[in-house]
Amino acid sequence: MGSSKKAKVKSRRAAKSDRLSSLPLEIKADILSRLNVQDAVRTNILSSVWRSTWTTIPEMLLCDCTYTSCQGSVTSAPPKFITLVDMALSLHRGPLHGITILGSKNYHDVFGRWMHKLSMKSPNSVTIKLTSASRYRIPSCFFSISDLEHLDIKNCIISLPQMFKGFEWLTTLDLENFSSTDSDIDNLISCCPELSVLVLKSFEGISCLNIRAPELEILEVDGKYEDFHLDAPNLETANVTLHKAQEYQSVPVVHGGKSYLKQALGSLSDIEKLVINGYFLTYLSKGCIMTKIPAVFDHLEMMLLEICFWDQREILTGRVIVSECSYPQKA
């Protein structure tokens, strides 16, 4: 074979082997976004074409699991992971649709810096689950992210800044193992006009849980609280659990008294699935339980009630709820 033919064969092989590098930048970035950032950064060594591609990925996954070492402290933060997060947040350019940060070590020393850099990127989706050490206080700059649509945070402290204007586009809010106050959680929820999915689990500092969300469709609450107000006329699925926070005293049925049933379930005219667990039915049985609930559950398809059968008030409360169902398929 002549030298010219050999050169042509080599060039064809090179072109075929580097077909990925010839893809448009946005496609290569989309491919890399399916990897964690550590692996995406390693594509720098492929060729000069890939050198900065990772800095344009629309979705970032940062996890310290690959830096876990059997040696040293089990809680100290891996320096390489801290460097990786700093580098990813500093060098990323272009729109950032979503970011996920997962960690099992202590990152209190750098958390504020990360949140400041993150707030400047204005992502659409944020998931932060740092499970080690005490709760992380979300800095005020984070609440200025204007394009946020999905927020999922675990192990945090929610304290709203005075100038908080709300998350105009937020549709999903998932908070777990967090602490806040009645007013802050109330304002956070009510200042998200497009909120359709709300999950609140394992929280502290909230005695009166007030949920006002006109577009809410899915609700899951699991925690300790003393009072519960729900105004969500478009709610379709509700799973509410109350853990024992106080001793509920039996209260005589009095017409005209406060109706906990009404304030908790009175707006649920579109409810399709209703699950009541723990001591929530005990809570609902306080006060006047004979007051008619404004809503009629004529869309209800499934209902699950955890009832203490030796408590007559709980049984009566359960009967009142069931009586509001037009055609429950499962109860």
Structure description:
Helix 4 (79-91) packs parallel to helix 5 (108-121). By secondary structure, the protein is of the alpha/beta class. The strands form 2 sheets. Strands 1, 2, 3, 4, 5, 6, 7, 9, 11, 12 and 13 form an 11-stranded parallel beta sheet that branches. Strands 8-10 form a two-stranded parallel sheet. It has a domain at 207-331. It has 9 helices and 13 strands.
Order of helices and strands: HHHEHEHEEEEHEEEEEHEHEH
Q: Kindly state the mean pLDDT as a whole number?
A: 83
Radius of gyration: 26 Å
In what range is the share of β-strand residues? 15-25%
Shape: elongated
Largest sheet: 11 strands, parallel
Number of helices in the DSSP assignment: 9
Observed structural traits:
alpha/beta; F-box_dom; 331 residues; elongated
Please summarize what this structure is.
With 331 residues, this protein is α/β, with parallel strands linked by helices. The protein has helices at residues 3-17, 25-32, 37-41, 79-91, 108-121, 182-190, 260-265, 280-284, 312-323, and strands at 59-63, 98-103, 125-130, 136-137, 150-157, 172-179, 197-204, 208-212, 218-223, 227-231, 237-242, 273-278, 302-305. Helix 4 (79-91) runs parallel beside helix 5 (108-121).
